[in-house]
Write the C-alpha cells for this entry.
Amino acid sequence: MSQPHLRTVVVLAAGEGKRMKSSLPKVLHPLLGRTLLGHVLAAAGPLSADRTVVVVGHGADQVRAHLTEVAPAATPVLQERQLGTGHAVRIALDAVPDAAGTVVVINGDVPLLRPETVAALVEAHEGAAAAATVLAAEVPDPTGLGRIVRDTDGRLAQIVEERDATPQQRALREINAGIYAFDAVRLREALGKLSTDNDQGEEYLTDVFALLRDAGEPVAVHRAADHVETLGCNDRVELAGLRRLLRDRVNEGWMRTGVSLLDPHTTWIDVTVTLERDAVVDQNTQLRGATTVGAGASVGPDTTLVDTTVGEGASVVRSHAVGAEVGPQASVGPYAYLRPESRLARKAKVGTFVETKKATIGEGSKVPHLSYVGDATIGDHSNIGAATVFVNYDGVHKHHTTIGSHARTGADNMFVAPVRVGDGAYTAAGSVITGDVPAGAMAVARGQQRNVEGWVLRKRAGTAAADAARQARDGEAGPGGAASEGD
Ligand code: UD1
Ligand code: MG
C-alpha cells in the first residue's frame, strides 16, 4: 500500500481567460522566462509536495504539453466543463484519493507569488492546525475580487465574490488572493456540500470557508506581506503591469548581488538568467532564457541575448545573440548577430555587421567587419578580412569551412565550402577560394587587373570625368605639375 500524501499542491488552470482574447490559454502566456503557470509551479516548488495536480480544461492539450516540459512530475487532471473553482478542486482530489495532510490550492494566474509566501501560509496553517487558511491581502483596488468578510471578533466569517456582495461588503479592501491551505480530509467533506446558489451558478471553492466555520472547524486568514504578490492577471494590460513589477523585483535582486544595471527601467531579465558580480548591463537590454553573464562582463546598450553564455570580462554591444557562447574577454558588436552554436573562444572578436552561425572562432581570432561566418571553424589568432562570406550553402546542403590558426585572409573573400585554409596561410583580397590553401601559402583567386589607357577620353569625351582626366594628364605633363601647387 502506498504512503498517504502529506502535502498535495493543486493548481487551477482550466479557465479560458476570455479577456486575454488569445488562442493561447491564459496560463501559458509568458512572463519574463516562464509562463504564468510556470511561475506558480515554481512558487510551490519548495513545498516539496508529494503530489502536484494541475487542473486543465481550456487548451488542455497545450497545457499538458507544457507541463511535460516544465513539470513532468505534475499530474494534469481534465475538468471538461468549468463549473467553478470548487468543482475544479473536487475533480483534482478525485485524482489523488489517498491525499492526506495539507492540500495547497493555487489559482494558476498569480505569477508574482513568491515561494516564501506560500511556505509561510502553509506553516501558519499547519502550525494552527486549521481546517482551512486563505491568503489575503489589503489592496488599493479590490474590483472583481472575492472579499474577506470578518465577524465582530475579527475572525473570518466568509469569502464573498464581488458579484454576490452587498454594497458594504464591496467596500472591503481585504481580498482573497486565490491561494489556500486546507486539511485534506475536511476539504473533501466540505467540497461535497457546495451549492451552486450564487450569481454565476458555479461551485465556489471559497464557500468551503463558511461551511467549515459553520461546522465549528477552525478557519484562518493569513496576510501576504506584499499585496503585489497576489495580483492576478485577467487581460494583457494587467499582464504588462505584472511584467513591469516582476522586472523591478528581478532587477533589484541583481543589483543587490553586485550587478550594475545602468537603466533598470529598460532592462528586462528573465527569472531564469544568472549574472555574476560586477557584470554591467546597459540600457534597452533583454536577457532571456538560459543566458548567463560572467563576472565583470558588460552587455548592452540595445542588446538581446537568448540562451547565451557571456564569459568573464567579455563585452557585447548593440547586438542580438541566440544560443551562443561568448568566451572570456571576447568582444561582440556593435551590430552583430550571433546565431545558435556560435562559439567565441577567449578574446575572440566578432565586430560590426557580422553574422555567425554554427561557427567556432578560436582564441584571439577576429572577424571585425561586415561578414557572414556560417558552418565554420576558425583556429586561434587568425584574422578574417572585412566583407567576407563563408559560402556554406549549395542550395541543397550546408558545407563546412575550416580556417587554421594565425591565418590572414584578405578583405572581400568568399570561402566556398567545403574548403580548408591551413595554419599561417594568407589569401588575397577579393578572392573566391574554392580549393584548399596549404599552410603558409598565399592564395590569389581573382581576375588580373587590366588598365585600358585613355578609354574615358575616347569613349566619354565631353563628360566631367573626361575633363578631369584631361586636366590630370596635362598637369602631370606640365613643368612642375599642377599637383605641386600649395601643400
Ligand atoms: C477567484 C476567487 C476570488 C478571488 C480570485 C483571486 C472563487 C469563487 N473566487 O475568483 O475570491 O479573489 O480568484 O484571483 O474561487 N478555474 C478552473 N476551473 C473552473 C473555474 C476556474 O480551473 O471551473 C481556475 C481558473 O483557470 C483560474 C482560477 O481557477 O486560474 C480562478 O478562477 P477565476 O475564474 O479567475 O476566479 P475569479 O473570478 O478570479
Ligand atoms: Mg481570476
The first helix runs from residue 36 to 44. DSSP finds ten helices and 39 strands in the chain. Residues 275-443 form a domain with the UDP N-Acetylglucosamine Acyltransferase; domain 1 fold (CATH 2.160.10.10). The chain has two domains: 7-230, 275-443.
